[in-house]
Amino acid sequence: MGKLLFPIIIVVAAIFVLISQVFFTVDETETAIVIRLGAYQRSHTSPGLQMKTPFIESVTKFNKKLLRVDVQVASLLTSDKRNLLIDSYARYRITDPLKFYRTLRDQLQADARVGDIVNAQLRGEVALDLQEEVISQKREDIMLQVTLGSNRSEITRAEAINEYGGIVSDMVTIVITEKNEEGRSIRGRAATQEEIRELEVSPSPEILQNTEIDYYIPLKEKYGIEIVDVRIKRADFPADISQSVFARMEAERERIAKGLRAEGAQRDAEIRADVDKQVQIILETANGEAEETRGNAEKEAINILAEALNTNPEFYNFRRSLEAYRVIVDSETSLILDPNSSLFQYLEKPDLPVE
């Protein structure tokens, strides 16, 4: 029995090895290519169990999902001659596994190549923009231009004619870069149909003098990948100018704060002056109404008094004399009066008037 056990173990192990060499699985997030002695045989894009020739065929699998690569931080110069440290990343996918395998071999080399492409496009695009544009909301437009530019691979005119069916091929894109009055290149544009017809005749037509003419093919035609998106994670100032920039920013914010405080103080003074004015108006109005009411009351009292006088003038004179006596006459007062004085008449004639 012991002699049979060892051969059985060898046979079982051989079967497992043979099965692993014959069968392989493809996940739904993967695509696979089969290579026989270095030569491509076939691709498998559908998930499931697949077969291959044992020992002489090998399988290379690639991820179908979006792949991310963190681009190396680069110091880039803007159009207003200011340095920015740009930290970015890109997302790409493998569109042609065979072309990817032949040109880049694996994801490590693909990441390095994508990083170089994106950095080159960022350098060229940032050089056309102002510093404030790179760090403002216009960044979205810049990233769109970088993504579009990163999905193109430059070729020569001869390559376009010999390998891609001529410069009028749908696969070839012609970009014309003009120069401004200062002699600096501006953002490139696609060639018009008239310019393409002229380029078919001559590589340097007269209508395109003092311009740069570049020929491109899609990046996926060269490397089998497509760059889906490029984003800036951070855009910082270099360390040697950060302090001065922060100082300027602080001074600017302080200036704005002082202006706001002065505006607030002015507004406060205006509000207070308006309130004081309204208070003064209200007080003057109230005082005027009070004086008017008081005058009406005095008028009414005078009218009532006048009516009383008209009713019994003699009785009124008598009451007035009594009031005068109460004020000027007491037990210690001596009066010397003219016999004809009106004040003396009621002292001389004590009889009360009868109404």
Q: Can you count the beta strands?
A: 13
Task: List the secondary-structure elements in sequence, H or E.
Answer: HEEEEEEEEHHHHEHEEHEHEHHH
Q: Which fold does the CATH topology of the largest domain refer to?
A: Tetrahydropterin Synthase, Chain A
Q: What is the residue-averaged pLDDT?
A: 85
Report the end-to-end length measured between terminal Cα atoms. 164 Å
Count of separate DSSP helical elements: 11
Which CATH C-level class of the largest domain is it?
Answer: Alpha Beta
| Fourth CATH level, the homologous superfamily of the largest domain | Band 7 domain
Provide the domain count: 4
Poorly predicted segments? none
Give the biggest beta sheet: 4 strands, antiparallel
Chain oligomer state: single chain
**Radius of gyration, in angstroms, nearest whole number:** 53 Å
**Residue share in helices?**
40-55%
Q: Proportion of β residues?
A: 15-25%
